[in-house]
Every structure is written in structure tokens, then in C-alpha cells.
Amino acid sequence: MGRRSKEKTPEYFTVDVERLDQEGRGVAKRDGKVVFIVGALPGERVTYERIRNKPSYEMGRVTAVHRESVQRVKPACPNFGHGPGSCGGCAMQHLDPLAQVAYKEKVLLDTLWHIGKVRPESVLAPIYGPTWNYRHRARLTVRDVAKKGGVLVGFHEKSSSYVADMTECRILPKKISDMLPAMRELVASLSIRQRMPQIEVAVGGDGRTALVFRILEEPTEADRRAMLEFGDAHGVDIWFQPKGPETAHAVRPENEEALGLELPEFNVRIAFKPTDFTQVNHALNETMVGRAVRLLDVRPEHKVADFFCGLGNFTLPLARRSARVIGIEGSEGLVARARRGAESNGLKDKTEFVARNLFTWCEDDWNELNARMGGIDRVLIDPPREGALALSRVLAATDVRPARVVYVSCNPATLARDCAVLHHEGGWHIRAAGIMNMFPHTGHVESIAVLEPGPKPEKLSEEAESIEKRIAAQGDDNVKIRLESEED
């Protein structure tokens, strides 16, 4: 069976593109409907193929550009495109890298206003780094596809479960990109190639590299030998993952602690496993951590709380600058390893780590933590995409407040929601916000906001009531929030 159960006659239309949406797609209007066009840029006149037709909007992909934007550039990667079969790892290689940064800044500010009805008092200068070979963590899908000549290893195609037929990748480190054809050959030689759905790549700060093979069947001795020989030939550590991430282990036990993340400004090294969450862009991570510590204005006498601390990416640098830091994280395993990281960096006496469910955080938890620390002067929040709604509600309601909060976000929508709660319900000021281009050529927006407490309102404003109604309507604190209207 082909990719489409019913082949439809293609439909093409020509429009003028007005702007970009939250996914990096061009936005136009035709016959009173909004049209989202993959591959189109503002100011362009394009022809698009309609791929979805809904009552209030259409979706399409560009097939011809009749008037080009001055910001359009030639994509560097041969796998990049907008049609069927193109790689889904990137979305915006056709847009100048500096224009990508400006676009993401606009996404952040628009989202803060549309969702949260908040605006920062100042906009931080964006931070960015290398635009190529920056992705030091990646999950590559593996498929044995006879129709395409054998094993494929790579990212998914755009809007598809198929694997892109790629032999190089410009956003992966060059060493990994150059290795892709050999990885395909290796998997093709294994008896368990049909039982190996993915390979996870992780590169340490010093270039040390691990490949984690997800195996659904025990490899034969010949398979094992072939993979180890591959690792020796290409200078990578081989790991197996038979079940969940916690089962990942180095085939050679001496490589278990080989990967490390370096933060030279703070003389910190954080050991990690290749399945751990770490920022994919090492250069940006160093800059981001330095900016967060400076924005917190941490002083030697301060006591700091780091929420969603993970392995201590912010906790350990903060400990270099403050009197004491407590890191709070939901995973007992991560907490145990963060403690080992503090000890290995000589920071055991200045840090404490505890495991708590931060999605159910309440005012009693905050008061207990504050008493435990003898007061909390500064707070850093670095949540997953779900955001930190429970914690934001507590900080909005409590009278025991830190003097400053820095919120690092990987989802502008939940940042906007949480800032709305803090501002409209708790009187917090959003002093500044800005973006960090952690993922060049993608629509992913990493951002940072600085908040300081102000007088709490005597009663909920209309904005606060509206925000609370929308949150209640979602039915789950952890739901993914999106812009309600792309037509505003």
C-alpha cells in the first residue's frame, strides 16, 4: 500500500505571505481563510499545494516562490526540504540564521501577550552560538526498509513516521554525521536489525561520544563483537538499552562515567549518562547558565532554591556563587546522581538535593522549604515543557517571597501561562525576558524571564479570572498550551 490510501488530485493556489506562525510556517489568507504554508516566508508570493482543508483554515507546502524574501537563504543540508521524503529534523534552514533569532524573539513576546496578557519591562539581548554541528544529543530512528535498499538511520520525515533516507546531517557533530553511512552498514550486518528501533547519540563536552542501541532482543555474540569493533574503529562507546532508559548500560563497564558536561566559568564538570536529559547545545548551555546566574544577582550570603534541578546544571554553578543551594527534582535517581556530582566538584557542603513532585507543589511545601533553608533569597525554575503551574501559584499566593526569580523555559506557551499567574494573581513584575537560540533551524524557542515581587492585588482582575478559567478548562496542569488564535 502506498503512503496515501486514496490519491487526490493536487490543488494549487497562489498567495502573498504575511508572517510566520509559531511553527515557522508562512501565514497567508485566501478566500477569508487563514493558510499555513510550510516553506514560505513573510513578504513572499508563493504557490502552495493544499494538503489539508478545514472550515476555518488550510495547510499547504510551498511548490514555487515567485517573489523571494531577502531573508531566504539556500539550505546547507541536502536532506532539507518541504515535500514528502524530506527530513523533519529542521524546519527553517531556508531562513537566514539571524532572522531566525528575530522570529523566535517575536514568538516569545507575542506568546507572552496572547496567552498571558503580560509584557516584560525590557527585552534581553538574544544569545546564540554555532548554527551547525551543534546538536550533541539526538535520538535516531532505525528501520530496515527493503524498498529503499536496506537499513535507514536518521530523523523522521516531515509530518511522517517514515525515516528520512539520510547519509549526513549538518546539525549533528561532524563526527556523527560522517558516521551515518557506517551506522547503517553496521545495523544491516546484525541478526537483530529488525529488533533495534533506535540509536541514541550523546556527546560529552570533551567530544567523548556514546551510542545507545535500543535492543528488543538479546544480541548474538557475533552482533556484540561487531558493535564493539565498530565502536573501537570510530572512537565511540557502545551502550545497550534493553528496556526503559534506566536499563541503559555501557557494554564495557569502565565507560559508565565517561561522559561529562563542562561549565568552565564555574569550574564544574557534570557526569551524565547518554540517556539523561542534558542540553543538546553545549556552547549555548554554557552561555545560558552564566546568564541565569548573573540575572539572579546571586551574592555570597544568599540561599537559593533550584526547582527541576536535574543533574545540577544550574545548582552547582549557583553553589560557587552563593552560601547554599537546594535542588529539587522529581526523580530519586537524578537526585542521587546530583549529590554525587556535588561531591565530585567539592560542593557537597554547600548543596542539598531532595526528590519531590513539583507538579503537586503547595504552599505548605514552600513554607517547609523556606524554614529548612532559613529563608530563600533567590529561586531558579527550569521546568519541562509542561511548565511550573503549581509552583507559580504558590509563589503568587505566599507572603514569604524570594527577592528574585529566574525562569528558564523550553515552551513559551507555558512560560506565558505561569507568568500570567505570577503577575495577575501575585503582583510579580516581569522585569525582563529574552530568547536563547538553543536549536538553530528549528521552531523550538528556549527563553528566560526575570521576575521580582510586587504588591499582591486585593482582588483578581479580569485578566486573572480569564487565565484561571482557561487553566481550569484544560483539565490538567501538565497539558500543552497553545495559542488560541493564529488570526490575532
TrEMBL record:
GO molecular function, one term: iron ion binding
Alphabetical list of CDD domains matching this protein: AdoMet_MTases (cd02440)
InterPro entries: 23S_rRNA_MeTrfase_RlmD, MeTrfase_TrmA_AS, MeTrfase_TrmA_CS, NA-bd_OB-fold, SAM-dependent_MTases_sf, TRAM_dom, U5_MeTrfase_fam
Coiled coil ranges: none
Active-site residues per Swiss-Prot or TrEMBL entry: C410
Binding sites annotated in the UniProt record for S-adenosyl-L-methionine: Q279, F308, N313, E329, N357, D382
Domain TRAM: 1-64
EC number: 2.1.1.190
This protein's UniProt keywords: 4Fe-4S, Iron, Iron-sulfur, Metal-binding, Methyltransferase, rRNA processing, S-adenosyl-L-methionine, Transferase
Secretion signal span: none
Pfam families the record matches: TRAM, tRNA_U5-meth_tr
Residues involved in [4Fe-4S] cluster binding: C77, C87, C90, C169
Catalytic activity: uridine(1939) in 23S rRNA + S-adenosyl-L-methionine = 5-methyluridine(1939) in 23S rRNA + S-adenosyl-L-homocysteine + H(+)
Gene Ontology annotations of biological process type: rRNA base methylation
Keyword Metal-binding: yes
NCBIfam families recorded: PRK13168.1, rumA
Cited HAMAP family: 23SrRNA_methyltr_RlmD (MF_01010)
Family to which the UniProt record says this protein belongs: Belongs to the class I-like SAM-binding methyltransferase superfamily. RNA M5U methyltransferase family. RlmD subfamily.
The protein's role, per its UniProt record: Catalyzes the formation of 5-methyl-uridine at position 1939 (m5U1939) in 23S rRNA.
Protein name: 23S rRNA (uracil(1939)-C(5))-methyltransferase RlmD
Organism: Sutterella megalosphaeroides
